[in-house]
Every structure is written in C-alpha cells, then in structure tokens.
Amino acid sequence: MAYNDVSDQPLPTTVKLLVGGGFGVGKTTFIGSVSEIEPLTTEELITEASVGIDDLDGLPSKTTTTVAFDFGRISLSSGLILYLFGTPGQDRFWFMWDELSAGALGAVVLADTRRLEACFSAVDFFESRGIKFIVAVNEFDGAFRYEPEEVRAALELKPHVPVILCDARQARSATAVLVALIRHMLAAVAAPSTR
Amino acid sequence: MTVSGDDSWLDGDAGRLVRPYAVTNGRTAASLKLDLLSMVVATGTGSNTTLEPDHLHALALCLRPASVAEVAARLRLPAAVTKVLLSDLADCGALRAGPPRSASDTSDRVLLERLLDGLQRRL
Fold it and tell me: ipTM score of the complex?
C-alpha cells in the first residue's frame, strides 16, 4: 500500500472550537459554510443519572443517552487542523457540554435576534467555564436588524466580549467570525488582565 | 457492509444491524487514551490478518491522518466504540495515534497567530 509516506510524519495539531447557541439558530449551517468537508455527525453514548423520573426506590438510577453533534474541519496548514463542533441545542443535552468543551480553545455563540433568549444558556456556560467566546448575530432574512450594542445589552455581555453580525450561510462571513474570535483571544494574551 | 457517504442517511431509523458494542465484543474501555480530536494514521504495517471487517473499515479510513471524531462519524459508530476499535488497531501495530489532547492553551500566542494567519488566507 502507498501509505508509508505518511506513517512516520508528525501528526497534525488539532484545535477545537465550539459553536454554541439555541436550537435552530444556524450552527450546522455555520459549520457547513466554513468546513472543507460536509458536516459530519458523531454520536457519543452518555450515561447520565436520571433526575426525578424513574427514581422509585430512592437510589440514583442511570440511563444511557445517545447525543449526536455535528462538526466540520478546516485544514489551515499541513500541520494544523481546526475542528468546529456544534454544541447540542436542546437544554436536555446540557450535560454534554462539559464533555465537548474539554480542550476547546474558544467558542462562537450564534444568536438569532428573533429569539435572543435561546442563546442565554450558551453565554452563561462559556462565561462560567472561562471559555473565551464572541457573539455572532446570524442575520436571518426578514429578521429585525438590531445593532450589536443592542444585542450586547440584551445579553448582558461584558464590555470586552465582541459582538459581530454575520450571515452563517456565507463562507466568507462565517470565516470572518472565526477571525474575530482568534483576534479577541490574541488581544487577551496581550492584556491578560481583561478576560 | 458498505458505509459510504451516499447511504449514510437513508436508513437512519433502522440504524446498524449489529448493535454497536457487539462490534467490540462488549468491551467499552479502550486500551489507548483517545479523545475526539486525537489524530490517528495507519502505519501500513502490523498483523492485519486477524482483523474483523469493522477494524479493517476503520483502518481504511486512517490511510491519511484522521481524527477519532471523523472515523466515528464515517463508521456511523458511537465515539466510545470507535475508540475501542482504534485501540485494537494500535495494539497490533496497524495504527499510530497522536496524544489525546488537542491544543487548548489559550495563551499560546504562536498557535493563535498560526490560526489567524490560516483563517485570514481563506477570506
């Protein structure tokens, strides 16, 4: 076989970024726009303690749940591959976020101005875990356009968290969101006191 | 069994005919520490003669460096099961795995600048 040529080369460095936001906000669309592959779906089997339900005898019972999440890939150079993982949109998959966010470099929270409250939980999660993020407002057709500062106020974002507008369907626009995220992270390295 | 991009979604309700953990003989723990972004690549060596079809299929997906997440998605198997298969392949020398860690040092300026440079080239 002809694969000896790669077998002794160093394996690429992988970087994980998360794309969070409410259900139906366009996370998979965003990932698909920037990914060099069709977004793939991985299933993870999770054992979770069931709360409330099935708790007949006072002992904690466990159930196994399958959580599917989408991801895409961007090969930035031969030695560096960026993976974008969409976080599960439904709140009942909340427990999955810890697993997904382990080792994540940063995150994008996609917001839909028609349902801004849908991304509250993503903002809360990334804030509480100290994961650096920016908010990208996905401008759906027909949605009322808000100014970024109005979105910032509604989401009660800290002043240093960038809010930008994007069209998740456009590769260039979605890529610009990722550029903004990395710039935000570089700025934090330069000024470590502001997180 | 064929698993290609074309038929991936056609039979989603029925799922695989073999239950996921049957593939691993019920084993749930991988001998190798892998996470979703661990990179694996076929070595082109190792004793492939005793490998099961799922192992061979997994190996075929690693002719170029691939992440555990990608192999799992293309096999349509849960990540946990895929990790067991990949560990088996590593154990017999058919596969080489990178460290179970993606770059996540948020203060790594060199890494961030490489990312920025790479992304800006795509604009």
Answer: 0.84
CB atoms closer than 10 angstroms to residue A57 = 7
pTM (two decimals): 0.83
Residues A42-87: tens digit of each pLDDT: 887 666 554 444 444 555 556 667 778 899 999 998 899 999 999 8
Please count the residue pairs, one from chain A and one from chain B, whose beta carbons lie less than 8 angstroms apart.
145
Q: Quick check: A62 contacting B, CB < 8 Å?
A: no
Cα gap A144→A165, rounded to integer Å: 13
Q: Domains plus CATH for chain B? A: 20-120 (1.10.10)
Name the residue among B67, B97, B119 with its Cβ closest to that of A14.
B67
- Chain A 136-195, residues with CB within 8 Å of chain B CB atoms: 171-172, 175-176, 178-179, 182-183, 185-186, 188-189, 192
Q: Which domains does chain A have, with CATH numbers?
A: 11-41+71-190 (3.40.50.300)
- Which of B39, B74, B106 lies closest to A132 in CB terms? B106
CA end-to-end span of chain B, whole Å? 41
Rama region for B38: left / alpha / beta (φ>0; ψ in -120 to 50; rest)? beta
Q: Do the Cβ atoms of B39 and A14 come within 8 Å?
A: yes
- At B34-63, the pLDDT tens digits run 888 999 999 998 766 778 889 999 999 999
